[in-house]
Structures are given as structure tokens and as C-alpha cells.
Amino acid sequence: MNSIVYRITGLMFGFVAFTVLLLIYLADYQMNQLFREYLLIMNRGGMMHHMGQPELTFLASVHKSLIWVGAILILLGLLASYSLGRSIVVPLRKMSNAAEAIEQGNFDQRVPVMSKDEVGRLAVIFNRMANTLESNAKLRKQLLANIAHELRTPIAIIKGHLEGMLDDVIDMNKEEVASIHEETIRLNRLITDLKDLSLAEVGQLSLEKQPTNINQLIRRTIGLMKTTIEEKKMAVELNLNDKLPEIEVDPDRINQVFSNIFLNALRYTPDKGKILVTTKLEKKDGQRYLQIVVSDNGPGIAPDDIPHVFDHFYRGEKSRDRKSGGTGLGLAIVKQLVEFHGGKVLIDSSLNMGTTFLVYLPYVSK
Can you give the residue range of the structural domain that contains 303? Predict the structure, then answer.
């Protein structure tokens, strides 16, 4: 009896029944009064007229008709009330059952959208939430698989080298120790990236903001990559606005943002390619930003892959051998660090036309 459908039905039916009974009572009372006044007028006019059997039969017939009309209206009110209650409760009940199934881990639950009112809107939101939960569950599983894969590779290499040394299969020389050291660095970098990414996603990453000259940061970062640039015979063009003001950011984190984007451009742009770096102030959505643009003339990104560029462990190359470079966390970290600074990062790419990353860092004038 606690079901909302019975409460809605009872409330609506009670209201309809009260209204119908009240109307019947008023109609019956009014009819009797008018009929009596009619007879009184007739008597005053010299025409003695008393209520006889025909009049009584007529009144009884009208009373009976009113009762039947009232009963039909009350029945219709009951049916309408029950239908109204079910139209609200049935979709809610389906959402409740689907929510219980989702709670148990069955994320493929969806509910039909049967109307365009508030209940229908709630069903749309519920389905959208279910889609998000299902997608997040798949991403979580994929993330765990990717983490296991990325951790397994360096650990397996280190384990193999150490076992070989213990069994005297591999000589313990400087070259082998350097190889193990390289894998430990790779493993440490992966763990550090995962830690920074997780802290940024939950909003607990600490930032040490200070006035920073973005142009100097960019020039210094590119200078550190000079060897790689020369090896690939890349042409790097800088179009930096020297009148840019300093902005309040964490220089180490923004250096990480630019380094990851620039390294991504270096990695996927063929030898003798070109990278253009631009900085300027721009107003977007009513907010002033310092914009950093990194463009390359590489192979670009397929349209189906663009929405996943900032996903964890995404790579332009689907293979996961060591030659492809990177862990697939670089751009995910870029997105989190930029957003943690209150900015945004966008991407524009077409196959065989190159890729452009646009970083917007909020600028507040003093």
C-alpha cells in the first residue's frame, strides 16, 4: 500500500469523487428548489397546482440520472487517476530496477523514454548516466590491462637480465648494468606519471605557482631537445609573442605540458618534418588566455581516434613495442595539468595534414 501509484490514485480519485458528489448534491438541491418555486408561482397565479405522481416520477427519474452520471464520472475518475499514477510510477519502477542491476555491475541497462515530460527527461538522463558508467567500466578494465602491460615489460627485462647474471649466462659488465638502469628509469617514469595523473584527476595535485615567462620556458625546453631535433633533421619554427606578460603557473608542470606535446610532435612527425610553435594572448568565451600552439606536418590522426587522444595509454601507433616510444600517458597528463591550472587543451588534426595542439592558460591582468 506504500506504492506511489496507490497514493496518486487515492488522492486523485478522492478529489474527483468529492467534486462529483458535490456537483450532484448541488444539482439535486437546486433542481428541487427551482421546482418548488415553480409550483409556488403557479399557485400564486391562481392555478392551484400540487406535486403529484407525475412530478414525483420526474424528480425520481432526474435523481436516478444524476446518480448514474455521478457513478460513471467517479468510475472514469478512478480509471484516470490509476492511469496517471501508472504513467508516473511504471517508468520510475523500470529505472529503479535498472539502477539495482547497475549496482550489481550490469552496466548495459537502459530504460525506454516514453514521454517528453519530466519523467521522460529523467529517463534520458538515466540512460546517459548508464552510458557513462558502462564506458568508465570498460576504460577502467582497459586501464588496468594497460598498466599491467606497461609495468610487465620493464620488470620482465630487469628480471631476465638479473637471472641471466645470476646463472652466469649474461656477463655482469657496464653495458648490461646500463641496460638495467635504463629500464628502471623507464619504470620510475611510468610510476611517476601514473601518480601525477591520479592526483590531478582527484584534484589533489599540488601546484607551486609563480610568475612565469612562457616564452623562456618554451625556448629552454626546445634547447634541451636539440639533439633529437638534429637527429631527425626537423625544422622548428618559433613564432613567439615577445610582449607576452608573465602568468601565474607552476613552471615545472607547464614545462611538462609543453614537453609532452612537443615530444609527441617529434615522435610522430617524419624526418625532415616541420614543427611550428606559436604563443599569443587570446580572448575565448569571455576569458583572456595565453595560448600555446604546437603544429606539425606529420601524418595526422584519424577522425575515429581524435576523441581518444587524451585517454590513458592512447597511442597513435597501436603497437606496443619499445620502438614506438612513450607510455601513452603523456597527453592524458597534459589534459589534466592544463585543466588543473584552470585552462583547456584542444586538438585539430586531419589525416595527412598534420596535427595542431592548442593550450589555453588563463591570464588575469593586474
Answer: 210-362
